[in-house]
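Let us work through a complete example step by step.
Step 1: write down the sequence.
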Amino acid sequence: MVHLKRTVTLVMALVMLASLSAGIVPAAKAQEGTTINILMESVSDTEYIQQLIPEFTEQTGIEVNIEVLTYTAIHERLLPQFIADQGAYDVVVVDKQWVGEFVGADWLLPLEDYIAASSFDTSVYIPAMFEMLGTVNGTTYLLPFYNYTMGLVYRTDIFADPDLQAEYEAEFGVPLEVPTTVADYVQVAKFLTRDTDGDGEVDFYGVTQQLARGVGIHAEWANLLFSLGGWYYDEDWNATVNSPEGVEALTAMIDLYENAAPEGATGYNFDEQAEVMRQGNAAMMLTYSWMPAQLDDPDQSQVAGLTALAVAPGGSGAQGGWGWAIPRSAPNPDAAWEFINWVESFDTAKARAILGGAPTRYDVFQDPEVLELYPYYDVIEEMIATAKPVPLFGGAAQMVDILARELSESVAGGKDPQAALDDAASEMNDLVVGDPLIG
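Step 2: predict the structure and record it as tokens.
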């Protein structure tokens, strides 16, 4: 299991990188003495990159400063840097819902010439990830960095419990199994919600949700929307979130909250959501691809060794990820590309995966050493291949904010689901007017 090998992964990663570079001296360190500045999010994958940076400096002579901010602070910090003649950052990480905004405003440097000069093979990326964090209208602006695609985490011991299996089959006439449709997901979650100590209070939940207003509640709903065959816009960019599928997804999310989830879930973001699972008080949750490693760590989880991962019910979860990009205002774009070329090489991407990172390359997902440490990575590869992203246009981040507000008003405030999504659709139609990425 992951937690039994965690103490050796850093050593393995560094030894692997050192052995690969031993005796290899670049013909010329063209950027030696240059210092590049990188803006990154405060997540585990950033920590893994920081651990590996000394190898890059040894190979290239380029010093690296990484500034780490929370998700909400990054966007605010970037905007004045993008419009400056020369900004502070040489490399930035870009969330999937910012791609349309940044490309549409012409803030990112096209990478085509760098990719060609370095013979970098972009076909190593899972197509669904590269379509979201790579090429826009035929031009490549980013390389994918890490995924946070969503799937279903479930308790293996709960689903294997013979008493629960017998009770479920007696009630519904079918075996208790990991749900593969939204209807089954709701039914199973409500069935598993119960009072386990007999005091009249529910203390075990079928699901734990993240329903605080923000990206989390949007992601909870989007997983259900995709599973029901819904989407944000039609082919003419008319909003469709208020379709029967959209309303059914929201109704199901409310049903889960009222009958299968903790009452406090309307204040939960992903960490509070996961804490319910870590404490052993929930059977399932829709969550991000990097969460299983935390749940399998006995230092922070009471369910280590008792969880597994599956594709979201319905077969399409919410796609998530970040990409590397070079701003047009970067002071040192050539050195910036040297860093991206290194950090997205197979060797470095594998070393980061060994540390516990969330890769985006086929060859890393399928590497035997990586799979030995993280056998569920084959499920994550399938999750990425089948997941769906937000639409690619300049207002994507605003769209998520609009939906988060209306979803929250419905779940926590009692607003009628149809009315909430009608209001969201009206504002979403205004967002796409005049967008440069929409033909």
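Step 3: interpret the result. The longest strand covers residues 35-41.
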